[in-house]
Amino acid sequence: MQAQLDGAVNAQGKESGAVHPLMWVPTAYFTMALGFMMLTNVTSTMFKNLGMSNGEAAGYSSMFILAYTIKPFYAPFVEMYRTKKFFVLSAQVLIALGFVGVGLAMSLPNYMVVLLPLLWVLSFVGATQDIASDGVYVTSLDSRSQSLFCGIQSLSWNVGPIVAAGGMVWLSGYLYTEVFHQTPGTFGPEWIAAWRIIFFLVAAVTLLMAVWHWRVMPDGERASNTPSSVAATAAIIKDSFITFFQKRDVWRMIAFAFLFRLSIGFLEKIGPFFMLDPASKGGLGLSNEMLGLVYGTYGLAAVLLGSLLGGWFVARRGLKMSLFTLCCAVNIPNVTFLVMSWYLPDNLILISAGVIIEKFFFGFGSVGYMIYLMQELAPGKYTTTHYAFGTGLMGLCGMLTGMVSGYLQESMGYIHYFIFVMVATIPSFLACWFAPFHHTDAAQDNTSSSVATPMTH
């Protein structure tokens, strides 16, 4: 494999003096994922630790997904100015400074007044980093190298969630109890000191990555069809919308793109809250250390393994034959949370098993979603943009469900809420059953690498 990777870039490397992609691809996608997870996932745990209700914690952290949902609309503007590397470095420096600002703001009396707008702005900076980093990858590597490095790209991205939702959450709990000697299982402003260190640490890592990328990342070339003016960009966006809604059975495809992960959207924020809340509130009473280990490390490793096996499964059977099975894999294992909320196990092995089962099958089944977008929704005049529309619908679903999930859980309690999550699987099954197929399964031999798109939850 290494010989293939070296050979794929050898010619262009000799001609241009370019740094080997292994020097910047893994770190670029790790840095993207680290910022994304800190902003859209880890913040919900932080808000919960600081004493927010489940409704507030889930709602506030979900609103940071907006920037990543609508990034297709401002991606063309990033193409128009300077180099892609310039935007990557600028975004990473701003994210680092922003996380330092988050840590400093937490020492203010009414810190939430500053914290929430700052994190919201940082989410747009993070989305811009994603756009520019993807642009460097696509324009600096030829198609063969892109395929060869796709697996490394995906693996590197998935390290980010493990570090953020696993390592950083674990470290916050360790600092809280062992360094600042606070009482485990309590929520409130006494968590500020621990989380300030976490954000300073992530800022340092991000700044270090910016320095590294300044040295090794290529500039990225301008695409041949890059618009040269704001008016031209607006015209392209308008035309991409028009052609998108002219697709055959587009509303059924939109329903699929929005509803496939509906139940997961309701589970995504509440799962960690269920782990943290004490038994008196219907939760499992885990510490941040255990949450980071079980949910952020074991669970995300299970997602990655499931995704790899799911790609192999689709490659063997084809998407049309596999899609409903994959939908079952995403939705049915959610019942593990209902079972845990009913019995409230205190055995860490049983809790870990429940999380691993749900996460593994989520990763296994979600592969079908990404392949469907690639093979059925995206093809046409604006393939990349229409694919981004599909993933944007996924993000919109996650944002909307996340914003209401905490309030629903507080009004229902955990047992009834997880019953509701199971009921929410029905629209997913219907959207999957009626999803149209107008294209044959293409390039199945490349499926396992092409579907390695990050899918976290």
Layout of helices and strands, plus pairs?
Blueprint lengths: L1 H15 L8 H25 L4 H10 L2 H4 L1 H10 L3 H22 L5 H30 L2 H37 L12 H25 L13 H16 L4 H10 L2 H7 L1 H7 L11 H30 L1 H13 L3 H9 L4 H30 L5 H30 L1 H10 L1 H9 L13 H4 L7
Main location: membrane
Subcellular location: Membrane
Keywords: Membrane, Transmembrane, Transmembrane helix, Transport
Keywords:
457 residues; mainly alpha; Growth Hormone, Chain: A; 2 domains; 21 helices; globular; disordered C terminus; MFS_dom; transmembrane; membrane; transmembrane helix
Quick recap:
This protein has 457 residues and is mostly helical.
Verbal overview:
The chain has 2 domains: 1-226, MFS general substrate transporter like domains (Growth Hormone, Chain: A, Up-down Bundle); 249-452, Growth Hormone, Chain: A. The two termini are 30 Å apart. The relative contact order is 0.14. The longest helix is centred in the middle third of the chain and has 37 residues, at 143-179. 77% of the residues lie in helices and 0% in strands. The chain has 21 helices and no strands. The protein is globular, with a radius of gyration of 22 Å. α12 packs antiparallel against α19 (414-423) and α16 (335-343) runs antiparallel to α17 (348-377). The protein has helices at residues 2-16, 25-49, 54-63, 66-69, 71-80, 84-105, 111-140, 143-179, 192-216, 230-245, 250-259, 262-268, 270-276, 288-317, 319-331, 335-343, 348-377, 383-412, 414-423, 425-433, 447-450. It has 457 residues and is an all-alpha fold.
